[in-house]
Amino acid sequence: MAIQSRTRKELRQEIGRNLGAMMTGKATSGSTTTLIDTQSLLGGDDDYNGKFVRLTSGNANGETGIISDFVNSSNTATIKPIEGTAFSGAIADNDYYELWDEEYNPDTIDAFINDVIVQYSPRALITEAIAPKTVASGTLDPANLTTAQRKI
Question: What is the pLDDT of residues 80-92, one digit of tens each?
Answer without folding.
Answer: 999 989 999 999 9
